[in-house]
Amino acid sequence: MNISPLASSPPGTSPQPAQPGTVTPSPVLSARGLLMTYGTGGTTTRALDGVDLDLDRADSLAVMGPSGCGKTTLLHILAGILTPTTGTVLHEGTDLARLGDRRRTRLRRSDFGFVFQDGQLLPELTALENVILPRMLGGTSRRAATAEAASWLDRLGLSGMHDRRPTQLSGGQAQRVAIARALAGRPSVVFADEPTGALDQATGQAVLQILVDSCRDTGAALVMVTHDGTVAAACRRTVTMQDGRIAQEFVRPVAETGSTGAER
Ligand SMILES: Nc1ncnc2c1ncn2[C@@H]1O[C@H](COP(=O)(O)OP(=O)(O)OP(=O)(O)O)[C@@H](O)[C@H]1O
Ligand SMILES: [Mg+2]
Asked: Does the keyword ATP-binding apply (predicted)?
């Protein structure tokens, strides 16, 4: 595999200012100087220790590294679920920490999609209802949300399963419902934490390909935490974390990620 190393920018460096007369695409997410300390007093854990990261539209980023190195913490901070101890996250230029809780929640619903290891579908709702619920909470009409959800479920190979509850679905099918739910709102960024970790390898690979292709087709950026190098290889970039820092970054040639590159 032809992987070329790319030095990540040193902590604290800022993006280069745009040259007059040039169009510089701004990243959809931009994090600078992230530190995160859990706990107070004598029992504190430094989970992030100076992370800078930019994510472009429609790009895909795998976050790897040993257990406890800060991957989930980073994902949650980038998604505005957690606020860092210090440092900033800009989404399309807006500082997440400066939004109030309500506006941040609204932003998460309208602009971010989430896929977690176990899907986190609501057990009492059908597949279709699981997909439409966040859309309706975001203000979309039931009729529009239903049409959108049905089309996503069909597209992900779940036609005929719209009315099944999560317990009546296989792990791979449930993860496809979670992907439909994440993408139905046309998010600008999809966050995935070990999205295939609970699946066998073949099912996991199929679900992963659906996730990566769906993000690429809709122009969503993807940030995916994984322990699995094969899974990471579906993403254009991989960062490896160590003790709360980005220790390494790789960028893959587009051809190796199975992308046509058409939307990038
Ligand atoms: N709510 C919390 N309170 C205290 N410490 C925490 C909390 N969440 C995470 N930590 C600690 O922060 C560090 C980073 O945790 P994090 O969950 O980000 O790691 P991770 O890389 O996602 O690990 P894994 O691969 O096991 O999921 C760990 O030392 C963990 O114990
Ligand atoms: Mg984790």
From this structure: yes
